């Protein structure tokens, strides 16, 4: 009986007594497309044989309008069928939601379902036999929340916090009285009022004490009218006098490293001991996977799978947004009255840009923003940007660097300005935030959230608004900058873009672009407001909390923005377009979250992490931060990745491991380089060992190796060069076990794409005597089927087999069935032809085949060779790829 009841579930008896399967009928109806046989579209279906064939009596002539009209019913049926088929398998309302709105708990918690679908969800929940409390998860059948039996979560924490504050207040009582002399009666005490009063008194005492200290300091330095004294007092005033209920304040380090002065929620105080939070951390933590890197907790990737969606959003639909507040900002303030101080700043810029910002460049005059690699000495350390700004009394320089090099750049700047009272270094690490938006809808997304309803909004804002009709983001020149004041974006219920009333012609658009190139979109007052401590602090004055904004929203202004008052704050934003066709928004730190909250409500905008940033750079054929192996931090990251892959391989059982040592690669056995990543050290040793091989050496025979009196291998053939690589690997491993470094310099150094480089042979072939390997960055595309992976090996084609590989790359060679030949029929080149490694490679959605980026020996590859060979780790198949150099420096 039990089995038959299960089998008959979902069926009912029909007219003839047979069981009707409603689920099967539903599936059948979703796949059927109704049609009509009425087809008057052919004017002469019989095709009679006329002696004279005209246009009217032509056989089977198709009348297109008649055909469309006759097939109208079938076309509509096809569209309905597509919709029915899409939702045929959806038996619950939450199953038809888009991916962005899907939640795991939506099956039993109607609060996770959109409001317009909750009645149907509640109805579906009521069909089962389970209890109501479990069914709706704290919500009744009408959608109202059930009464909680005891406090949980946040409410329980709130009660415990009140208890601690009461104990704290009891310690400060004087003979049974509170601070104002009011007698305490525990039984009749208004708890919330007392807590508020105690908090206000404590803040008042602290602020008065700090102000007294500032006044004493100003009196002490009354003779000194330097910027340093003023900036230090302004910083203390900003930290100690909070001018809003949101708790926002400016936190700038003046000639000192910035640190978080206070953490708003005591609940999270211990969680930021080593790794600080971004302004949008709590928002991201619910929607993305976070990683701890460079002293920050950074979004790595969304929890939702988005590899394809990222590519679509970047190329032709929507846009992507990142919170890039982890990029550190330094502001140099120099008095223009001191020529010596100005020369010191110019020397700093010349060194950091490796000579790009000089007296003859437009970067030093402030007309353009410089982007490139920040150099310390002659070594590139990380990507960065420098902008020079001139005002009446000050020369200001804004330097933005990657967080991996924060300490090094700070120490370099601090040493350069030491002892100079006319130059101040402001560490705006926790004072200035930034957001990056890229994609075809990036400009439209930013214009929909930045508003200024003042009558005198300024020419800069008007120029920004006039760009609303530009549908192509590439129209705006790279390096363009805008600076203006905007209102709190939370005053609007949703993003609203204000299009201009008139359609502009080509001449008007050209005039707009000329104004943008002439820095017509920069409001100097807004720019100075962002770069000064007082300006950022004043932007927080009367900053509204969400509760305050909610009280100002009324039913009669539903759908309209909240009316503006004179007390509502305005804050500065700086928007500039970088070399990647992305828009970077620079704004005060505590305005980042309000802007971000409104930005993510823009249609077709997708939140992204650092992994999506690498994906976009890869699809463009450019280097991302994870590909910068020629920098010290990038090389360290690649070594850490190799160690993690090694540990992961060792954890596997022996039957599940790939045996790299027994892999047959042509005439060699096993991987010479480490199979767990990009082994730049072994590649460096191999390329310089091959330089020691005599030109007239006979490599066709393997002869026993010879050693000198120091037991060092004498390199006479290619076999000796390969064996010397293994010797150096063992030597480095033994030194690492002692806790020392086997080498001090990075094994490789980057040279420009157009620069020629040769490997020297006059060096001491020891662990520390091998010079750095000059490399060039390149991008490549697969000409055959198959995907390449990170860490793949790059070979130059041997001279004896160039013809076969080139024909294979051009798909000229065919097999007996006429198909393309497999590269497995061609032998893998020897290690003497190994010239480089791949840092990033996979299937490129924008091109439809595999692409990647990597580095090769600068002396081994010339532009006259069209193809290279690339082999994945653990594979014996090479793939032919076209390549081109990437201009990095």
From TrEMBL:
Region Disordered, annotated ranges: 1-26, 134-155
Origin superkingdom: Eukaryota
Cellular compartments per GO CC: nucleolar ribonuclease P complex; ribonuclease MRP complex
Coiled coil (residue ranges): 188-222
Domain POPLD intervals: 583-680
Compositional bias segments (type: Basic and acidic residues): 1-11
Any one biological process term the GO annotation gives: tRNA 5'-leader removal
Domain POP1 C-terminal: 830-884
Compartments it resides in: Nucleus
A Pfam family: POPLD
InterPro entries according to UniProt: Pop1, POP1_C, Pop1_N, POPLD_dom
Domain annotation Pop1 N-terminal: ranges: 68-333
Keywords, sorted A to Z: Coiled coil, Nucleus, tRNA processing
Protein name: Uncharacterized protein
Organism: Dekkera bruxellensis (Brettanomyces custersii)
């Amino acid at each position: 009986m039990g089995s038959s009841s299960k089998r008959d579930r979902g069926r009912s008896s029909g007219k003839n007594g047979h069981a009707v399967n409603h689920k099967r009928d539903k599936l059948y109806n979703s796949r059927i497309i109704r049609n009509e046989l009425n087809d008057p579209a052919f004017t002469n279906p019989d095709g009679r044989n006329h002696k004279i064939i005209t246009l009217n009596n032509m056989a089977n002539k198709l009348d297109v309008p008649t055909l469309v009209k006759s097939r109208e019913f079938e076309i509509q049926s096809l569209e309905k069928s597509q919709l029915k088929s899409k939702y045929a398998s959806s038996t619950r309302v939450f199953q038809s939601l888009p991916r962005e709105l899907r939640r795991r708990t939506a099956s039993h918690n109607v609060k996770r379902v959109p409001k317009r679908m909750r009645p149907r969800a509640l109805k579906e929940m009521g069909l089962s036999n389970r209890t109501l409390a479990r069914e709706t998860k704290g919500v009744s059948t009408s959608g109202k929340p059930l009464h909680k039996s005891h406090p949980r979560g946040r409410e329980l924490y709130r009660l415990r916090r009140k208890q601690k504050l009461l104990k704290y207040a009891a310690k400060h009582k004087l003979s049974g009285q509170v601070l104002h002399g009011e007698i305490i009666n525990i039984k009749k005490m208004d708890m919330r009022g007392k807590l508020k009063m105690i908090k206000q008194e404590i803040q008042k005492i602290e602020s008065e004490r700090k102000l007294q200290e500032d006044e004493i300091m100003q009196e002490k330095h009354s003779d000194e009218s330097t910027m340093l004294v003023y900036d230090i007092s302004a910083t203390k005033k900003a930290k100690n006098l909070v001018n809003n209920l949101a708790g926002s304040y400016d936190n700038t380090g003046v000639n000192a490293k910035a640190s978080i002065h206070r953490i708003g929620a005591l609940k999270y105080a211990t969680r930021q001991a080593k790794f600080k939070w971004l302004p949008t951390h709590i928002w991201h933590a619910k929607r993305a996977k976070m990683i701890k890197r460079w002293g920050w907790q950074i979004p790595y990737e969304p929890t939702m799978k988005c590899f394809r969606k990222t590519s679509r959003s970047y190329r032709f639909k929507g846009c992507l947004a990142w919170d890039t507040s982890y990029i550190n900002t330094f502001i140099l303030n120099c008095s223009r009255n001191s020529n010596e101080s100005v020369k010191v700043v110019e020397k700093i810029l010349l060194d950091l840009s490796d000579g790009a910002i000089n007296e003859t460049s437009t970067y030093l005059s402030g007309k353009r923003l410089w982007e490139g690699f920040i150099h310390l000495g002659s070594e590139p350390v990380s990507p960065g940007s420098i902008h020079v700004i001139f005002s009446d009394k000050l020369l200001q320089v804004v330097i933005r660097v990657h967080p991996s090099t924060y300490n090094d750049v700070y120490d370099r700047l601090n040493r350069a300005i030491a002892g100079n009272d006319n130059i101040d270094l402001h560490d705006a690490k926790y004072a200035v935030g930034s957001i990056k938006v890229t994609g075809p809808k990036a400009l439209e997304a930013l214009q929909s959230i930045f508003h200024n309803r003042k009558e005198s909004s300024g020419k800069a804002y008007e120029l920004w608004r006039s760009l609303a009709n530009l549908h192509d983001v590439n129209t705006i020149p790279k390096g363009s900058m805008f600076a203006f004041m905007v209102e709190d974006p939370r005053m609007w219920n949703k993003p609203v873009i204000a299009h201009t009333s008139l359609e502009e012609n080509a001449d008007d658009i050209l005039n707009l672009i000329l104004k943008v190139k002439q820095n017509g979109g920069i409001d100097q007052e807004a720019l100075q407001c962002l770069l000064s401590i007082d300006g950022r602090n004043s932007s927080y004055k009367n900053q509204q909390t969400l509760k305050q904004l909610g009280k100002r929203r009324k039913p009669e202004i539903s759908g309209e923005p909240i009316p503006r008052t004179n007390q509502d704050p305005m804050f500065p934003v700086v928007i500039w377009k970088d070399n990647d066709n992305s828009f970077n928004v620079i704004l005060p730190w505590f305005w980042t979250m309000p802007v971000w909250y409104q930005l993510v409500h823009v249609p077709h905008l997708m939140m992204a992490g650092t992994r999506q940033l690498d994906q976009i750079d890869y699809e463009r054929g450019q280097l991302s931060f994870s590909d910068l192996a020629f920098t010290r931090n990038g090389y360290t990251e690649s070594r850490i990745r190799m160690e993690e892959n090694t540990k992961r391989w060792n954890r596997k059982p022996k039957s599940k491991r790939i045996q790299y040592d027994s892999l047959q690669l042509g005439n060699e056995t096993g991987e010479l380089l480490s199979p767990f990543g990009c082994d730049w050290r072994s590649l460096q040793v191999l390329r310089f060992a091959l330089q020691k091989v005599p030109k007239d050496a006979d490599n066709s025979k393997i002869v026993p190796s010879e050693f000198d009196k120091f037991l060092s291998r004498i390199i006479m053939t290619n076999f000796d060069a390969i064996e010397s690589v293994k010797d150096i690997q063992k030597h480095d491993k033994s030194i690492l076990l002692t806790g020392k470094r086997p080498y001090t310099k990075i094994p490789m150094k980057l040279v420009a794409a157009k620069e020629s480089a040769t490997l020297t042979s006059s060096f001491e072939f020891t662990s520390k005597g091998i010079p750095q390997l000059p490399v060039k960055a390149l991008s490549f595309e697969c000409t055959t089927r198959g995907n390449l992976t990170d860490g793949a090996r790059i070979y130059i084609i041997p001279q004896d087999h160039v013809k076969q590989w080139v024909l294979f790359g051009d798909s000229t060679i065919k097999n007996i069935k006429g198909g393309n030949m497999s590269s497995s029929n061609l032998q893998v080149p020897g290690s003497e032809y190994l010239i480089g490694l791949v840092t990033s490679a996979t299937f490129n959605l924008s091109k439809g085949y595999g692409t990647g980026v990597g580095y090769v020996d600068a002396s081994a590859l010339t532009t006259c060779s069209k193809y290279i060979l690339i082999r994945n780790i653990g594979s014996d198949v090479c793939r032919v790829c076209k390549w081109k150099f990437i201009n990095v420096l």
